[in-house]
Amino acid sequence: MKKKQRVEERNNHDYISTLPYSLLSNILSSLKINEAVKTSVLSSNWRYIYTNPTNLIFDAENMLVKDYSFPNIYNLSKVLMFNIKMKRASTFVSNVNKYLSHVKNVQKIDKLKVCFTFRSKGYGCNDLDEWIRFAVERNVEEIDLCLLEENHLSAHNDGSSYVFPCDMFGFKSFFNRLCLVHCVLAPQKPCYGFSTLTNLELFKVDLKSEDYIRNLLSSCDNIEWLSFSECYNMEYLKIEHSICKKLKYLKVNLCRQLKTIMLKSNSLETLEYVGSKVEFFFDTPKLKSFVGRVSESVAYRGENWLVCKLSTDLPLLENLFIECSCMGEVITNRFPTFQNLRHLEVIKVAIFRQDLSWIPFALNACPTLAKLKLHLRTYFTIDEEITYWLPRCPHNHLKEITITGIRGHSSEIAIAIYLLRNANSLEKMIVDPRQRIYLENGKFVHSEACEYWSRIGKNKVEFLLKQEISSLVELLIL
User: Fold this and answer.
1) Which of the two ends of the chain, N or C, has the fewest CB atoms closer than 10 A to its terminal CB?
2) Structural domain containing residue 326
3) Are residues 124 and 258 in the same domain?
4) pTM, to two decimals
């Protein structure tokens, strides 16, 4: 056989079809459902591969061909809009049921995700129950439900939110992650099927009452990651030593009815709290990291009640992350001492200029601090030269400083210069113009540097900081 013919045969060979069936199923599970179904016409070998998915992703993009997007229907009359919404819902439910009829022989489902509007006892709720049952019977490991597509809206106050079927999960469960958005989670009794959960995330979920919350938490024997965000009917959060024994991370975000948080845990390592003033009770010997937000609305009698509470109740705290707009006023009035703090991270929000006055108070309050990160966010900068410097505040342990979101204006540069002059043991300073936005659990995203930075800011920062920096300090300007 000629060499050219061998090359052509090799190039025409279908290597993808020779892959293991399970691997092909995984690949098709990452496609949109309609795209995966289309592969059935490629050849006889591909006819049934799509019927063995590992993930079930049911949303408008996957299950609706026609454009029923909300911006396109909100300008219509109420009657016409209602009819379109009903047609949209019936088409969605019909398409999901049709698809499930084709994949009924699948043995294992890793993930079920549904993003569509469902209400209690409303159209499609019985079908949704059956979709969940279908996944549970196939040992689903992860369930992600968002049951109000207009996610910016609040929950319904008429009791029409879909009630998650807790009793559907029995003793034999592979269930390890549950994410619920816009529904009710209110187990009537401890749910043993939740005992395998390691990750529970609730957003705009109605928890009904303290009794239901107790039933929920007492079911989560293996929970490690727990998040309550903008949840309803949650006035009292109590975690005792006898429940959630493996909990490492807890987030409580803007649960506006919350009044008290009592934490008794030998495993909890990280707590994130954003909200108004509540009563805190701590018995958490391993809690070393705290993330919180400070704003004018929570500055209490001229001091940051939350930071003051932490310094008293968590004397062994090592990592503190705070977001604030009133840092100067609050810290200069009172910033308590953290004797063991090693890592301080601050998102400093300002309208016109960054405030330097709080820096020496923070340095004095954290004598063992080794790493400082300042994420600056200035909206309308007035670039005025600094003519007055605060008294020196030497710090002997600070070794690494990171400043992000810097544009190159004088008030920002003044903070960097002051830190250079007072950090006696500094080894490295990083200046990053990209503004960082905090997500959760230590994760960030960042935006691009502003146009001013590339034109003027970077050269200005580099010129002024190099006049101040020691030869022993590494300066990295991004």
Assistant:
1) N
2) 315-478
3) yes
4) 0.85
